[in-house]
Design a protein that fits this description.
CATH topology of the largest domain: Beta-lactamase
Strand order of the largest sheet: 6-5-15-14-13-12
Strand content: 5-15%
Shape: globular
Largest sheet: 6 strands, antiparallel
Distance between the termini: 66 Å
Radius of gyration: 22 Å
Structural class: alpha+beta
Number of strands: 15
Number of domains: 2
Length: about 475
């Protein structure tokens, strides 16, 4: 025990020395690590029901090195996760509070925690579970709908996707779920050992596409049009007042932004240190004319959520809206978009849905907004959703398109031209090919994100080619 303390003390001295000799860059990263750890550990264990030790040791510890050498974690199941450092001048603290049905929210002080827990938000009532085939009901995958060649192909890919390329934690892919829908039916689903269908899983930036679909429902309802100004009250009488919904959803509002997850960035500062994330992102300066420059930003969907909350009338109103207009019609269970401290849904990163429900969103896109025979989201919006942004051919409305160079060139050439896909941090992918009525979903906690991407799109490409030849 004594030698362990000595080694820890020596490490802390070296850590502090490094921080001081690198313009305190490491000091800036500490709030990122504590906030990331608190929020991810809270959401995965309390919302998703994942195993505490697995999440901490396999998904978080390798991600936030060297923070584990100086952290202290106090986790109370179904209540909160508090993470802080014990080194005097490196002390930082983040608390992720859990609220049933609402997920986890990061705060920094006891005062904020007390205030948040004292708020009254009426939760959505549970949906009746229909014993019918997916997507209308909750029945398991209809594997018998697959041809023998398709079944063999999917199973071969699935075996590879769930296998690990290395025993090194920072090289693993940690696939938790793989699902395939074909011709509007769920034909394949597999979960990693210890995971179940009923567990909501973090979509990270796939939440951006969810946010765009929610905005599409507001357009459908006539709340605003794509060419209307976003209308944030804080933008009144400024050059930002002319930014339109079309420009916002295309990730080209002209606002300054640095997206990054390796340490301190606009994205991590906002997600883990800002109580009102949409307002903070909206307050950044203009750096280009709206509609002219594509700048991928987790802040931009948070601005969209803030604007929709403002227009609808507050936290309860926007919560009720996305549950009543999207989740209930699609039969989605146990889903939530976690809030920041101000009560705005974190539309850029914090959607937690069951894999079968992320797949439902992909099917809605494949259906061009039609659900159960009705046009749930207006067709003109869905056409815009998948069309290339004037500022970037690779992007639509908070959604990626085939042209993206994120997909290896060989795979891009093999995939149909109408490919659209949601993508999230650590290997979350919903791959949609409307022309073939095909949707592939992969979820997990991949450190080898390139490998997870290539595996997912290889499955989609091989399946599309095989089905085309049948």
């Amino acid at each position: 025990m004594r030698s362990s303390r000595v080694y820890t003390a020596l490490f802390v001295v070296l850590l502090c020395s490094q921080a001081l000799t690198t313009s305190a860059g490491l000091l800036d990263d500490i709030p990122v690590g504590t906030g990331y750890t608190a929020h991810d550990l809270c959401s995965r264990t309390n919302v998703s029901g994942d195993q505490y030790e697995r999440v901490l040791e396999e998904y978080i510890r390798p991600k936030v090195q060297p923070l584990p050498y100086i952290w202290s974690i106090d986790a109370e199941p179904k209540k909160q996760v508090e993470v802080q450092t014990f080194v005097p001048f490196l002390t930082h603290r983040r608390i992720a509070l859990y609220r049933e049905g609402l997920g986890c929210t990061v705060v920094q002080t006891e005062e904020q925690a007390t205030n948040l827990l004292g708020r009254d938000l009426k939760q959505a009532t549970a949906l009746p579970r229909e014993d019918a085939p997916w997507p209308q009901g909750e029945q398991l995958a209809e594997s018998e709908q697959l041809s023998a060649p398709d079944a063999a192909l999917i199973n071969r890919h699935a075996d590879a996707i769930f296998a690990e390329p290395s025993t090194e934690p920072t090289e693993q892919r940690n696939t938790t779920a793989l699902l395939v829908a074909a011709d509007g039916r769920l034909v394949f689903e597999r979960y990693a050992p210890g995971y179940e269908r009923e567990q909501p899983q973090t979509g990270w930036s796939m939440t951006k596409s969810l946010t765009a679909l929610i905005s599409g429902l507001m357009v459908t309802d006539g709340a605003f049009s794509l060419d209307d100004p976003v209308g944030l009250s804080r933008w009144a009488d400024s050059e930002k007042a002319k930014i339109t919904w079309r420009q916002l959803l295309n990730m080209s509002p002209g606002l300054a932004w640095f997206e990054g997850y390796g340490g301190q960035s606009d994205a991590t500062t906002m997600l883990f240190s800002q109580p009102d994330q949409g307002a903070w992102a909206a307050g950044l300066p203009m750096e280009s004319a709206p509609g002219t420059v594509f700048n991928y930003s987790t802040g931009t969907p948070n601005i969209a959520m803030l604007a929709m909350k403002q227009q609808l009338g507050g936290t309860q109103a926007i919560y009720d809206f996305y549950h009543n207009r999207l989740f209930r019609p699609l039969g989605m269970q146990n889903g939530v978009i976690e809030h920041d401290y101000s009560g705005t849904p974190i539309g850029g990163a914090r959607g937690l849905l069951r894999p079968v429900d992320w797949l439902r969103l992909g099917q809605l896109v494949a259906n061009k907004g039609v659900w159960d025979g009705e046009q749930l989201i207006a067709r003109p919006f869905m056409d815009y959703f998948v069309a290339a942004s004037p500022a970037a051919e690779e992007y639509g409305a908070f959604t990626w398109r085939k042209a993206s160079e994120k997909i290896p060139a060989e795979l891009r050439q093999r995939l149909p031209d109408d490919l659209i896909w949601f993508a999230g941090h650590m290997g979350q992918y919903t791959v949609i090919i409307p022309s073939m009525d095909l949707v592939v979903l992969r979820m997990g906690a991949a450190f080898d994100e390139d490998g997870a991407l290539e595996q997912t799109f290889s499955l989609a490409a091989d399946l599309a080619e095989q089905r085309r030849s049948e």
